[in-house]
Amino acid sequence: MPNEISVRQWQERFKAGTFDSEEQAGWEDFYDPQNDRRLQTLARLVMGVTDPFILDHHYVWFKDNTPAVGPFYGDVRFMPLDKDAEKYFLVSLDCPYERTKWALITQRYGYGAPEFECKDIRQMIRYVNRLGPELEQGIKPPFIAERFAVEVFALLRGEPSRPHAYREGEHRYSYTSFQDGRRRMIRAAVSQEDVPPGSDSEEIRGIYVWNAEDEEKALPAPGKSSHKSHRRKETER
Q: SS3 for 71?
């Protein structure tokens, strides 16, 4: 394990080139740190962190992962200095098990699916910096409760065990069915008014959840209109 210096101290030493060992830098797991493209890219991510809470309350170490199937991939783990597991998160790069180049896994969202995915390092850096204040204040965004509701909804619809819900946008999720291998698209809302007429929804801990395919089935025929549909509104995060 690396020396537990803050991310701020890590950035200062990295910039000055004063790490005495690979262990101190947190990348001793890599075979050739100076020439490993993945490690260099992950270091760029760490250098992009500007949020004060993460800078002063986390330390980092880098992992070179060697899966049994698929190419090697790297990740950087942001470990809380006070050992508070709720504030732990990691960012993976080119993981063959994820859907996109960059994936952020947080303890608060769960380890089965990323809280956030993107293709661009700048997007990931922006998300990490927005994450800091939420971790500091213990804020759990609405999508945390929505994810739980979606997974329980899947159980109520016959899944043998809870699947992992992936975020697909605002109040939109997906999971792969254990029953037939199909991808199910799911919507969630905090108000029953946002549930399309005719949708077979479930209320789970104050969250209304329904299959997105129900929306298409509930659409009015051409030339007709639904009075309720004009009153629908999107719930902002």
A: coil
Q: Measure the CA angle with vertex 5, ends 135 and 77; round to 5°.
A: 50
At residue 230, the 3 state secondary structure works out as helix
Q: pLDDT category, 69, cuts 50, 70, 90?
A: confident
Please enumerate in sequence order all residues whose Cβ is within 8 A of that of 99, keeping only pairs 6 or more positions apart, or say none: 117, 166
Instruction: For residue range 13-35, list pLDDT tens digits in order.
Output: 999 998 877 877 888 888 888 88
Alpha-carbon distance of 179 to 85, in angstroms, equals: 34
Q: How far is CA 82 from CA 35, 107, 139, 158, 199, in A?
A: 33, 15, 18, 41, 46
- Measured in degrees and rounded to the nearest 5, phi and psi for residue 98 equal -100, 165
Reported pTM? 0.86
Helices (H), 75-218: 121-137, 142-156, 213-218
Between the CA atoms of 175, 179, 180 and 185, what dihedral angle is there, to the nearest 10 degrees?
A: -30
Question: Phi and psi (nearest 5°) for 116?
Answer: -150, 140
Q: Report the amino acid identity of residue 175.
A: Y
pLDDT tens per residue across span 105-147: 999 999 999 999 999 999 999 999 999 999 999 999 999 999 9
